[in-house]
Specification:
It contains 14 helices and 24 strands. The protein has 416 residues and is an alpha/beta fold. The chain has 2 domains: 204 residues, Enolpyruvate transferase domain (UDP-n-acetylglucosamine1-carboxyvinyl-transferase, Chain), CATH 3.65.10; 205 residues, Enolpyruvate transferase domain (UDP-n-acetylglucosamine1-carboxyvinyl-transferase, Chain, Alpha-beta prism), CATH 3.65.10. Strands 17, 18, 19, 20 and 21 form a 5-stranded mixed β-sheet that branches. The chain has a 4-stranded mixed β-sheet with strand order 22-23-1-24. The protein has a 4-stranded mixed β-sheet with strand order 2-14-16-15, with helices on one face. A hairpin with a 2-residue loop joins strand 20 and strand 21. Helix 11 packs parallel to helix 12. The radius of gyration is 21 Å and the shape is globular. The structure holds uridine-diphosphate-N-acetylglucosamine (UD1). The site of uridine-diphosphate-N-acetylglucosamine (UD1) has 22 residues, from helix 1, helix 5 and helix 6.
């Protein structure tokens, strides 16, 4: 477990090249479990969640080679069970359920861990599998699902869950007949997985809309693919420029995917310039406060919620943010208050009184995006801050300190 030492109040400027999306790469890795042959995945971020998922795949008999941003997967036979310790370390492991159920007819997974941001039940996933003919048992802390061959079903989600949409899409690729998912999630990562599955020979259409249709096929092959840019990594670095009063550009992004965030930044008074594949921001003389609510895509992303709350500490006036996707996602606000911020969480909303002069403090990251918010707060604070438990940050940001050093930040990784 390392720490970051941050000396704040240095305006950042420059360019940051954005990696492939964590939340797509992890799902493409598990989708490969449905296929046969050699996959070459490009633009894969070197983050610990990808390493953890590589461990899960290896335990299932997949050969995994990861060099630079190229991940090579050789899938021949898939066997056995998911290693429990790995599953517990990462919520996305629940995604192996869909592919393994489709491929092996049985899957047993430990109830997954992941970020500590609310209850995160799996009822939508499990109800979908059941509608496709699976029998599911809950044994203590694990789920066991069985289905000799899944069949197609017309499934209406009570909520557009990202993970459930992906899981049912994957399971349905090899089910007998047609599956329709209604009220599906519309995130860009869902389109990525559709394109990936279709590259393997699946017949999926409609991703990016609320209705996804999957016609089951008997067998899937392999494909080469480049992972969609990470809109949350990009958004986090745009905020790093603005929270320090600086200006800069993120490149290798899909600007459309950043639209809900860019709209908010413009409303706060920031200069926003969009060019093909890149977005620049310029700090205004004063940032304005805002009101925003998170929501499923194309709503404001919950994964940008902590970072934008950090930015609100530097905006004039009272900002209000409603969190409607997850409960209990405000733990990091106590830490930001240690820097001198004035943030009051209240049930599902958080109120931020700005602008506050932040000064360095000793902080502890409690989850991935909350950890990123602490780095932003520290970059805006006078003097030195220490941020502990940065393994949470390493789950989803590749060498964050190096990216930030490249644009002028004073940040170092300290060994424990
Ligand atoms: C994914 C992302 C996560 C992001 C989230 C919402 C990955 C690895 N993680 O998480 O970073 O914050 O989308 O954009 O891709 N829910 C249920 N029952 C279910 C499933 C979900 O009630 O069966 C609830 C959850 O508790 C949560 C909400 O639905 O309150 C959203 O969850 P979901 O969209 O499934 O998010 P994840 O796929 O877990």
């Amino acid at each position: 477990m390392g720490k970051f030492l941050v000396e704040g109040r240095h305006p950042l400027s420059g360019r940051i090249s954005i990696n492939g999306a964590k939340n797509s790469a992890l799902k493409l890795m598990v989708a490969a479990l449905l296929g046969h042959g050699t996959f070459r995945l490009e633009n894969v971020p070197r983050i610990t969640d990808v390493e953890t998922m590589a461990g899960v795949l290896r335990a299932l008999g997949v050969e995994v080679h990861f060099t630079s941003d190229l991940l090579k997967l050789d899938v021949s036979s898939v066997r056995g069970q998911t290693p429990e310790a790995l599953v517990k370390a990462m919520r996305a492991s629940v995604q192996v359920m869909g592919p393994l159920l489709a491929r092996l007819g049985r899957v047993e997974v430990a109830r997954p861990g992941g970020c500590n941001i609310g209850s995160r039940p799996l009822d939508i996933h499990l109800a979908g599998f059941e509608q496709m003919g699976a029998k599911i048992e809950v044994k203590d802390d694990r789920f066991v699902a069985r289905a000799p061959r899944l069949h197609g079903a017309d499934i209406t989600f009570r909520y557009p869950s990202v993970g459930a949409t992906e899981n049912i899409m994957m399971a349905a690729t090899m089910a007998k007949g047609r599956t329709i998912i209604r009220n599906a999630a519309r995130e860009p990562e869902i389109i990525d997985i559709q394109d990936f599955l279709n590259g393997m020979g699946a017949q999926v259409q409609g991703a990016g809309t609320p209705v996804i249709t999957i016609d089951g096929v008997r067998e899937l092959g392999a494909t080469d693919f480049s992972v969609v840019p990470d809109r949350i990594e990009a958004g986090t670095y745009l905020l790093a420029f603005l929270i320090t009063g600086g200006s800069g550009t993120v490149e290798h992004v899909v600007p459309d995917h950043l639209a809900p965030l860019l709209d908010l930044l413009e409303a706060m008074g920031a200069g926003v310039e969009i060019r093909e594949g890149e977005v620049s921001v310029v700090s205004p003389p004063a940032l304005k406060s805002f009101q925003v609510s998170t929501g499923p895509y194309p709503g404001f992303p919950t994964d940008m919620q902590p970072q934008v709350v950090a930015l609100a500490t530097q905006a004039e006036g009272r900002s209000e943010l409603k969190e409607v996707v997850f409960d209990r996602r405000f733990g990091y606000t106590l830490e930001l208050n240690k820097l001198g911020a004035n943030i009051a969480p209240n049930n599902r909303a958080v109120f931020i009184q700005g602008k506050t002069d932040l000064s360095g403090a000793s902080l502890t990251a409690g989850d991935l995006r909350g950890g990123a918010a602490l780095v932003l707060g520290a970059l805006a604070a006078e003097g030195q801050s220490i941020i502990g438990d940065i393994e949470h940050i390493d789950r989803g940001y590749e060498a964050m300190e190096e990216r930030l050093q490249g644009v002028g930040a004073k940040i170092q990784r300290l060994a424990d």
